[in-house]
Amino acid sequence: MRLLLVEDDSLLAESLERQLSAAGFSVDSIATASGASQLGRQEDYRVVVLDLGLPDGNGLDVLRKWRSHGVTMPVLILTARGDWQDKVSGLKAGADDYLAKPFQTEELLARLDALIRRSEGRVDSVIAAGRFRLDENRQVLETPDGEEHPLTGTEFRLLRCLMSRPGQLFSKEKLLEQVYNLDESPSHNAIEAYIRRLRKLAGQEAIVTRRGQGYMFNAMD
Amino acid sequence: MPWIDLNRSIRRTLLIVLLPAAIALMGAAWVIHGALLERMAHSFVEDRLREEVGFLRHRLNQAHGSVEALNTGAYFEQVLHHAFAVRVGSRQYVSPSSWSSLLVPLLEESRTGFIRRTGADGEISDYLAYRETFERQGREAVIVVAEDLSRLGASQRELHIWTAVVSAVLLGLLVLVIWIAIRLSLASVARLQAALKELQQGERERLDIETPAEFQPLVGQLNQLLDTLDQRLIRSREALANLSHSVKTPITAVRQVLEEREQPLDWDMRQQLARRLSDIDGQLETEMRRSRFAGAQAGKGAAPVSQARELLWMLGRLYPEKDFELETAMADEHRWPIEEYDLNEILGNILDNAGKWAASSVTLSLREDETGLVIEASDDGPGVPQEQLATLGARGQRLDEQAAGHGLGLAIVRDVVRRYDGRVVFDLSDSGGFRARIVLPERISL
């Protein structure tokens, strides 16, 4: 399995390269942002370990560049700053997981394993309805104005259901079935609250209410 | 009022507004006084003229229409100060005789009532006359009484000039009073400025001066800010001293071992070195985190709903098989007086903890009620034994003594919440999972 290691500390990079190789990866190691940006696009890696503080640029910019070029392999970012905002911006830029330095090699290997398993069979799938795009991997709704809105689990499932068949009417019962597990006992009010929230993101006209019947997604082409 | 810049100077604004206002009002009072004086004098003269006509008519009746009977010499003129002309039939009489050129034409006039003549040649240029006609035993009788207005006008003008002098003196006094009032009330500002200068030069530690009520909140806030800065300095010095103390020793140990050329590095030694480095990391992490917390501060706030959404989304990506839901009635833009980084630490740690332990779902609830600002995260995981709940994340416990997995994050949460005088309650949710409830005061106490 090919792995790209982007790390500028040579001592750490060499040690990691040895240990990752021993774990069965074939490792390409690079220390610069420009090199990483190019390699990531040219080669086909199974997984990437990306350090954020690089001598010639920020790892997040490299990641954004990859993602905007449709490079979809899972990326684990290494960061020395452990604050939450950093983690959020890392994941928003397209990372799949993060690990704070210092870390233990076993932890890194376990995370990489989990990432690879999670990404197996994963295809870059986007549901489009009109000018709305729902990124299934990232659970992000892109509205016509180009803005991205992160969604929580239920919001995402509800919207996926509605957006998969724009113009079709879904009753509240049908939506409840699609959205919730068996052991949960949500009410109709909960669905209404989620619809309100989704309308706030997508616009009032995007989700139409048919009184007494249900909801439908209006693609507005 | 574009010519008044309120931000420039209080003294300037007061002077610009009050001085012209005082002058204009005094001027207006003087003009009004003149107009009233004129009106009063006029109506007084008119009343007298009318009365005298009545008197003359009475006298004429008593004298059975004999015009000559009115000739009583100087007495009449001296008492009445007025000139008069009377004509009954073809006989007429004018007193005093110097007025005859003026009054005789008036006897021939067709109008009755008040007649004002100005600008006439001769000695008397401005006078007011009252003319009345009536029948007496078949003959037409005319009485005209007149008063020289120029004398009256002169005394009126004199009075008006005196009023002007008095007004000017009063205006001077008023301006003086205004100026003194401004000086007195702004003296406190000058005191404040002087105190600030002393503060800057280190001659003073606090603004402990008497100030008027308007400046008290300002001075209080400044002093509090100085207190906060002092405390922060003390705290960061202590933290650095502690850090340096606890980090230098393991660093020395590691270097010593590495510099011993003869001693081979066996596995046991390597593990000891690694443990020292972990200690250093732990100390660094703890102290850095402490100094990163802002704590309760005026002017700092964050929007909990949008922050929570981002964190929930992130955790949903990290744990794709679990659900992270938000329950709140608050709007995305709603703000809480909690510093953004601090709020992120609270939310991030309790959610991360819940995400780690949840079987399938995590619910975060944000609300405001009578107890304060409430953050509640519950999961459907295995929960924590009852006896451990109270000490979870408590101070004094070493990190490795904390319940596995729950410890560090919850210790951070306790640490931040304490800075805001808030409360942390750990208990079990309805589904038996773990629940963290944090209640923060609605208003920061400075």
List the SSEs and their pairings.
The complex is a heterodimer of chains A (221) and B (446).
Chain A: E1 2-6, H1 10-22, E2 26-30, H2 33-42, E3 47-51, E4 53-54, E5 57-58, H3 59-68, E6 75-79, H4 84-92, E7 97-100, H5 105-119, E8 126-129, E9 132-135, E10 140-142, E11 148-150, H6 153-164, H7 172-179, H8 188-202, E12 207-210, E13 214-217
Parallel strand pairs in A: 1-2, 1-3, 3-6, 6-7
Antiparallel strand pairs in A: 4-5, 8-9, 9-10, 10-11, 12-13
Helix pairs in contact in A: 2-3, 6-8
Chain B: H1 10-62, H2 74-80, E1 83-88, E2 91-95, H3 100-108, E3 113-118, E4 126-136, E5 139-148, H4 149-200, H5 216-259, H6 267-292, H7 304-318, E6 323-328, H8 340-357, E7 361-369, E8 372-379, H9 386-389, H10 407-419, E9 423-428, E10 434-440
Parallel strand pairs in B: 6-7
Antiparallel strand pairs in B: 1-2, 1-5, 3-4, 4-5, 7-8, 8-10, 9-10
Helix pairs in contact in B: 1-4, 5-6, 7-8, 8-10
Pfam families (chain A): Response_reg, Trans_reg_C
DNA-binding region (chain A): 124-219
Protein name (chain A): Response regulator
Key terms for this structure?
heterodimer, A: 221 residues, alpha/beta, five-stranded parallel sheet, four-stranded antiparallel sheet, 8 helices, 42% helix, 23% strand, B: 446 residues, alpha+beta, five-stranded antiparallel sheet, five-stranded mixed sheet, 10 strands, 54% helix, rod-shaped, phosphorelay response regulator activity (chain A)
Structure characterization notes:
The complex is a heterodimer of chains A (221) and B (446). Chain A is of the alpha/beta class. Helix content of chain A is 42%, strand content 23%. Chain A is built from eight helices and 13 strands. In chain A, the strands form four sheets. In chain A, strands 2-1-3-6-7 form a five-stranded parallel beta sheet, with helices on both faces. Chain A has a four-stranded antiparallel beta sheet with strand order 8-9-10-11, with helices on one face. In chain A, α2 (33-42) runs parallel beside α3 (59-68) and α6 packs across α8. The longest helix of chain A has 15 residues, at 105-119. The mean pLDDT of chain A is 86. Mean pLDDT of chain B is 84; it is low at 396-405. Chain B is rod-shaped. Chain B is of the alpha+beta class and 446 residues long. Chain B contains ten helices and ten strands. In chain B, the strands form two sheets. Chain B has a five-stranded antiparallel beta sheet with strand order 2-1-5-4-3, with helices on both faces. In chain B, α8 links the parallel β6 (323-328) and β7 (361-369). The two termini of chain B are 39 Å apart. The chains are: A alpha/beta (221), B alpha+beta (446). Chain A binds chain B through residues 82-85, 87-88, 91-92, 96-97, 102, 118, 138-140, 150-154, 156, 181, 184, 200, and chain B through 277-278, 281, 285, 292, 309-314, 316-318, 320, 322-326, 332, 341, 344-345, 347-348, 360-361. Chain A: This is Response regulator. Chain A: InterPro entries: CheY-like_superfamily (IPR011006), OmpR/PhoB-type_DNA-bd (IPR001867), Sig_transdc_resp-reg_C-effctor (IPR016032), Sig_transdc_resp-reg_receiver (IPR001789), WalR-like (IPR039420), WH-like_DNA-bd_sf (IPR036388).
